[in-house]
Amino acid sequence: MMFVCTDSEPDTDPTELPDVEKWVTDNDARGRRITGDRLAPVSAATTVRVRNGELLTTEGPFAETTEVIVGFDLLECADLDEAIEVARAHSMAREGRLELRPLMIVSD
User: Fold this and answer.
1) What is the side-by-side order of every strand in the sheet holding 97-100?
2) Where are the domains of the chain?
3) Global confidence as pTM
4) Name one Pfam family in it (predicted).
């Protein structure tokens, strides 16, 4: 899973950013991107917790932060090295940050 996040310190390199639509098209064509999308703004978030049996809901994200998850892509890569190369070509590698995390497959 690749989480697409904002970052308070984006890259300052003046060269043109990679085209994210081309990134999507290329990775879809190669079968590496299974699905992905943008998320609604954090103002639409609801945080859900249960404490001492009581349901607690809060409007907005779970923490006060300027760096938030704004999207995701589910990738199919042979290994972490391939996933890093795929992420490196995404425009948010420069404008924000990308968090790569393997899925934990839980068998029955």
Assistant:
1) 33-38, 69-75, 2-5, 97-100
2) 2-100
3) 0.84
4) YCII
